[in-house]
Every structure is written in C-alpha cells, then in structure tokens.
C-alpha cells in the first residue's frame, strides 16, 4: 500500500479515540481559550474564509468558527471526517468538511484569506509541493498559520525504547517506508520548517514558541504515548 493510503487508514482507525481525547481536552479549564487566543493573534483582522488542512476531527475548525470564520476543513481520513461531521459547529462562524488532499487542495487560486493547520506538518508528505500551492490559494494579504512541534527529534525508532510509548499501530504505520516519505516527522530544528516556507516564496515568515501550551500540558497531561513538547506557531504571508 502506498504511504498516503497507510496514513489515511491509520488516522481513520484512530479517529474515534482521537476525537474523544481532543474533545475532553478542549473542555479542560484554559485549553480552549488558549487555542482561540493563538489563532486570534495569528490571523489578521478581516480574515473571513479559512482553509484548514488536515482538520482531523475538527477541533481547530470549531475554534475558528467560534472566532467568526467561515472554515473549510479538509482531510483524507474518512474516519476523521465522520467524527468532525458528528459534532455541532459553534457560531458565529461556520464550517464544512471535505475529503481532499492537503498537498494539492482542490480550490481555485486566491480562494482563502488564511490557511491554518495544527499537527499536520510533521505527518505531511511532499511539503515542498504543498506549501507553494497553499501560497497560491491565498488572496493577497493572506496568511498561513501552522502549529506543530519537533515531536520526534531523536527519530521515531527511538521511541521503541524511550520515554514515549506509542502503540503498535503507530509504530507499525510510521515505519521506515513512511518515515522516508515524510519531510518533517523527525526534524531536529524548526529551521527545516522555515526553509520550506522560504522556498515556497512566502513573505514575512515568523515563528514563535508557545510555552503556555506546554504549561497546560504539564497541568493536564498529554495524549497517551506523548510527553510535553514545546510547540511553535509559524505564520507566513502572501503580500501580493
Ligand atoms: C495529528 S492529526 C491532527 C488533526 C487536527 N488537525 C488536530 O489538530 O486535532 C493529523 C491529521 O492530518 C491528516 N492528514 C495527513 N496527511 C494529509 C493529507 N495529505 N491531506 C489531508 N489530511 C492529511 C490526517 O488524516 C490526520 O487527520
């Protein structure tokens, strides 16, 4: 099976548990507000149409709808899209979910004011093809805002024996073949991410770490198999 199909199967199979965990986490004191604050600060005034790539079970989609945006969430894992569609979308914005590939989203150029993703970059194939396409999908003045982390700087193989205890399904999926097809899964520096944004022709590329999220992780715990990691936000623009 090709790498993307294996990833889709993995995330579909995990979708119900993933959605339940994210939903419970979102309800913990401080968590939802912290995320809404991150997106609110990252997206300029006037942003209306947002494409969320790799939306999963729709946690960020709903955060963005709460902020008043008109969100299109795309993902390739049918199970994730089912979980997303099963949850009500809060106003004052709106959301729709589509099965589509984040590497080559099927929209006309200049369709969106912003593109957002959370926890996609590390598991995205063909980043260097995807990012220029994302730039083309932005209207002039638009931005891309991505939150991720260096989840596996020691390499995914190291977690067989390390402090992270991922389950067999994860380790079976993210094997040598899959790891070889992912550009950022085992990145050791955010410079690798920033280089990809530079190569894609973005303007005004900025990154900052998000220590408040790490504080929340230490307070409330993290997903099974993980340990608290410092997350970062990358914002990159299209001036014209
Ligand atoms: C770790 S989950 C993150 C889900 C969601 N963004 C969140 O923050 O809860 C990664 C998601 O990226 C999706 N994904 C991976 N590669 C993709 C691609 N090429 N196109 C669309 N979705 C993709 C997976 O199906 C999965 O739902």
On the 0 to 100 scale, the average pLDDT is 95
Shape descriptor reads globular
Number of helices: 9
Q: What distance separates the N and C termini?
A: 40 Å
Question: Mind telling me the C-alpha Rg?
Answer: 17 Å
- Poorly predicted sequence stretches spanning 5 or more consecutive residues: none
Q: Which structural category fits the helices and strands?
A: alpha/beta
Q: How many β strands by DSSP?
A: 7
Helix content: 25-40%
Helix and strand string, N-terminal first? HHEHEHEEHEHHHEHE
Structure ligands: S-adenosylmethionine
> β content, as a range?
15-25%
Largest sheet: 7 strands, mixed
- Biggest β-sheet: strands ordered side by side in the sheet: 3-2-1-4-5-7-6
């Amino acid at each position: 099976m090709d790498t993307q199909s294996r990833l889709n199967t993995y995330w579909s199979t995990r979708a119900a548990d993933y959605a339940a965990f994210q939903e419970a986490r979102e309800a913990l004191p401080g968590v939802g507000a912290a995320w809404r604050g991150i997106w609110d600060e990252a997206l300029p005034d006037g942003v209306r149409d947002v494409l969320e790539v790799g939306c999963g079970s729709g946690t960020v989609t709903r955060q963005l709808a709460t902020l008043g945006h008109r969100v299109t969430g795309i993902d390739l894992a049918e199970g994730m899209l089912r979980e997303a569609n099963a949850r009500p979308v809060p106003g004052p914005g709106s959301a729709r979910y589509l099965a589509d590939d984040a590497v080559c989203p099927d929209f006309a150029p200049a369709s969106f004011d912003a593109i957002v993703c959370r926890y996609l970059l590390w598991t995205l194939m063909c980043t260097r093809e995807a990012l220029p396409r994302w730039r083309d999908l932005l209207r002039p003045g638009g931005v891309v805002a991505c939150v991720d982390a260096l989840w596996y700087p020691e390499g995914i193989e190291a977690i067989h024996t390390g402090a992270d205890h991922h389950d067999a399904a994860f380790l079976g999926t993210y094997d040598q073949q899959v790891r070889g097809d992912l550009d950022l899964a085992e990145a050791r520096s955010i410079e690798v991410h920033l280089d990809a944004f530079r190569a894609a022709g973005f303007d005004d590329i900025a990154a900052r770490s998000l220590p408040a999220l790490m504080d929340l992780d230490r307070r409330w715990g993290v997903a099974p198999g993980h340990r608290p990691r410092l997350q970062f936000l990358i914002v990159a623009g299209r001036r014209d």
